[in-house]
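Format notes (please read before filing issues)

Several people have asked whether sequences and structure tokens are stored in separate files. They are not. Every record keeps both together, in the order shown below: the sequence lines, then the token lines. Line labels are part of the format and must not be stripped during preprocessing.
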Amino acid sequence: MEKMLQDIRYALRALAQNPGFAAVAVLSLALGIGANTAIFSIVDAVLLKWLPVESPQELVVIAQNPKEPSTGFNYPDYEYFRDHNQVFSGVVVNGGGPLSMTVPEEGSHGDGQLVPSTMVSGNYFEVLGVKPAIGRLFTPEDNKTPGAHPYAVLSYDFWKTRFGGEPRALGRKITLNGAPFIIIGVCRRGFTGTQVGSSPAIFIPIMMLQQVNANARNWNSRHYWWLTPLARLKPGVSVQRATADADVLYKQIEQNDPERKPIPLYDKDHELKNRAVLLPGSGGYSGLRNRLSKPLAVLGAVVGLVLLIACANVANLLLARAASRQKEIAIRVAIGAGRFRLITQLVTEAIIISVLGGIAGLAFAYWSVQVLLGLMPNGTFPINLNLSPDLRLLSFSFGVSLLTGLICGILPALKATRPDVISSLKNDLSASGSTLSRFGLARLDLRKALVVTQVALSLLLLVGAGLFVRSLVNLRDLDPGFLRENVLLVRTSAGSIGYKGQRIRMFEERLLDAASKLPGVRVASLAMLTPLEGSRWNGDVSVEGYQRKPDEKPYINMNAVSPRYFETLGIPILMGRGVRDEDNPAFTPDPPEKPGSGQKTPEPPGSPPKVAIVNQAMAKKYFANENPLGKRFSTGDKFKMEDSYEIVGVVKDTRYFGLRKEVESMIYFPNWRQGAGDRMLCLRSASDPKQLIEGVRRQVRNLDSAIPVLNTVTMNDQVNNNVSQERLIATLSSFFGGLALLLAAVGLYGLMAHTATRRTREIGIRMALGAQRTNVLWMILRDGILLVVLGAVVGIPAAFGVTRFVSSFLYGLTARDPATMAIATALLALVTIIASLLPARRASKVDPMVALRYE
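Then the structure lines:
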């Protein structure tokens, strides 16, 4: 311990005497360690952290289909699993979305506060082992009878921020989507639900769903998949045994389903869909984890390479520093210092540099995490992750720092502790640096090898960044079939507070009329669905004269739109016409349970003829080269002329379900033809559409302040959210690729500057014998170019081999795109040659007389 403290004190003094060297080394490692710490903090929060519940390692997520696991559960299936399994000590479910909350005691007549919420089974808290901070949590009795227990449990953070952490919040009345509830308890601190990335503010029993969402009439149906199941294994039960038991339960459910139908030929994966798979549940479950696992793996590899480049850079600096300390080391050896003692001293210096870099890297990591969160897709609420520094993060940062110090320090220490004692004591620099006096394949020493490695790794990262950026550009330049600029989308939900049929229609039409008169609005419309929002409505369709193949999926995507919808979104009408006001019936009763599934929608007397508009994909599929105008189809598995729709228009193909996905067939019905229900308000403005948000909220408030505004988003943001994964990877890989290029350039510059300094006497002799400055310039520059060429020779094949692993992230180009390879190589060559040119120019300006006297 005494020797270690002595080494630390000596290392600190040595670094203080050379602050320039220390600053460059610490900064290099700070960038590398900070980048790794930032990525680890996201990986830890999304993929690794366990839920703050009792024995989280016993939890599993119940899913179907081992090929593509799906966690959707309906309530009857949940009850069957809960009551008939032999392997779980408890099964819980949760689901739902945001609710509009008001506190009547406060006398607020404005907008309700939109809060993240979740509906849970009565045993949710009991099975998870979550205790209350105050009050009580739900029991199974609270979730037995629909509408009987209007109780709410608050999260700890929401209780603190919204109610000031006051115990008297218990028993207070609140309204959720207009329905009265009573606060009965607060979760203990730290519990934020079981969905990674979201943090519910309010928990309510599932049996209260219809009170907060009157539209959810069939919530208890086997065809309403909206819950995520989590189960706790019984002691001693293996995952394999539990999976087998769940398989049996799925088969029993299918056999006992009263609505079971013959399996169609097109459902080739039916058996897989009814096979159980148990996913690890210790960290909960979230779609965010599925979306980010692959991008985080790619970014983890990228920052790992950046750290390697930083290590090579610092190792090169330490080698240069060791070369300048040869006399000191030779004296120590001459008076009896052991080699192990010298190695320990030099490695201690490297570790101190690395630890200082790790401390500085924590600040860089904090900034990087904020950037990372800004690049992630946000829905109604921003992503909520626990990223506060903890012992795990600090341990990771310290561990990386320690490992980095060892990597950086051992090789330079081994090389430095084998000095030519006699030459070093005589200050014979030419002898000690002879390997640096020539460059070539046969004389590739450690410092040159490190620079070649840096160049090769930098080229690998630049190629990857180029591929990701070009892929993102290809997606952004892709024609989605609509105009994304200056469009605002507003989702309200009158149905969730009990509006039905004619009342919903009246509200939506009054809102449309009021919003269309707002200053700056050019055109307004309503739609059930909008492109890229993530929702889908489809059903069986039978086309007159078209014979469906046995293995052909009958489903067609549908939408219900108002007049001027195509104009609002900039979707061109290619043939015929769009939707008109007279296409809608005067009044349509409540929408059917399954719109477009073949159920007949009652029509009032004197209703206009049924018409519809289709996209190019549907026209091409069903009518080939024929004119689709005037053709007819009906909803359901059999064509019925009396219920058929006439095609009166064809519009351009629009990508509704993802920019990467192929365009699918789409039918557009007049807005109220399929019944009255909540619609999306679409506004095209003359300028920034976000300026309309407050005006729309005011109009909703004027019509009915209880109606929640669920979401406001611009079409441009909706498109950007669709490519959020690509944007995240492209942005960060570009940043880290640039950082790697900078580190490689600094490393090459340091080597060339050191080499030029060591060859000062040689340069003086050459110039005294008649060499021109251009000769000296080329002599130094040639050595740098050779190192760059060697790095490219190693890096290009490595890039060809590695980039194939990221081909799934690319769009519109291959992993071995030659243009990207050429651009990355040219950029690397330009920057590194400039880094070599600077010391070469300095060397060419040396005064021969000064150089000849140089030792």
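For reference, the curators noted about this record: Residues 429-443, 591-601 have pLDDT under 50 and may be disordered. The two ends are 40 Å apart (CA to CA).
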